[in-house]
Amino acid sequence: MTPDQLIALLHRHWAQTLAELGSDERARLLRRVTELGDAVGRGPTRRAAREVGRMLHVMPEHHPVGAALRDGVRYAEHDPGGGVVVDRDRLGDLLGFLAGPPPTAEEVLDTTRQRLLHAPARGADTVIAVVTDAAADDLIRLHDPELGDRYPEFQFVPTTGELRPVVREVNRLLLAGQDPWGAADWWLGDNEWLDGAPAELLDVAPDELVLAAARALLEDD
Q: I want to staple 139 with a disulfide (CB 3.0 to 4.6 A). Which of 75, 134, 150, 216 is the partner?
């Protein structure tokens, strides 16, 4: 991960990141990111990026920043850009976010929704038959202000476009028709029970295990 990619990651998930940190940690993160922005040259820039990364390893595994930093990413990879933070506008925005007040609940929710809308999805025109046959809680439907209704891709069998039976069962358990964002976050977020995002394990883990993880969530509630 280059320093610029690190800045982009933090910029995309700033509200969720700040929500996990106390006031002292937020101030420390602001100092670290400022040092990254002020660094000149390949070596100092990379060292500053490592310091930011070390601090952010306190993020929980299900957090998008924490998950990205645990994906085997190394700051010492080949960096064709010379290790320099390129997007100064994005860096300036991020510093403004970090220097401001803690994010509101609405800001945290908005960043979560933006993350979910960035996941691969199908439009309503490609799932007409499935939507017609599905009950309210069978299928996750997320509304994108620009693209309209979006249906996360993991729900469908790649070869036939049919709704996966295990997805239908889990969506019903999660009441996807009433809380589609919460259901999508469960599927696309890291799950300690499964040691990964459920959506990424659909062709790997047994369906019974995915169902058990969903039931365990309901039992915890």
A: 134
One DSSP character per residue, 12-41 reads HTHHHHHHTS-HHHHHHHHHHHHHHHH--S
Radius of gyration of the chain (CA): 20
Of 62, 64, 67, which is closest to residue 11 (Cα–Cα)?
64
Cα separation values, 204 from 37, 120, 188, Å: 41, 19, 15
Q: What's the rounded mean pLDDT across residues 33-47?
A: 87
If we measure between CA atoms, which residue out of 20, 110, 98 comes closest to residue 56?
20
Rounded average pLDDT over 37-63:
82
Q: Residues 189, 216, 183, CA angle at the centre, nearest 5°? A: 40
pTM: 0.60
C-alpha span between 23 and 37 (Å, rounded): 21
Query: Would you give the distance in Å from CA 148 to the centre of its chain?
Result: 21
Amino acid identity for residue 126 in this structure:
T
Query: Residue 183 CA to chain centroid, in angstroms?
Result: 14
